[in-house]
Amino acid sequence: MHAMAGSSSRFYGLGDVAEILNISVAQVYALVRRGELPAIKIGGRGQWRVEHSELENYIDKAYQRTKQFIHEHPYSSDEHPGDRPPAGDDQVDKDAVDEPALEK
Prior knowledge:
Layout: E1 11-13, H1 14-21, H2 25-33, E2 40-42, E3 47-51, H3 52-72
């Protein structure tokens, strides 16, 4: 049985988090391993557990990032519901992009 957001369980397994966020377990594991979603590894089999409060903090930060993205990329009447910027568009460091070398 999976723990849900309204349950009294302090910790969630990665499968529970995936169900709550409606993403794959592999995506949750990647969030944990990249340090974006704090978790602990416990037991002899090294089970990952995410504390309820950490999941709530992650969700709050996701709302903040989304709000910032919307502020920086205002909606245009030319957009269609399926349109979206290229993947990673909001994380491009324009100063880090190499300029093409000029030929002499």
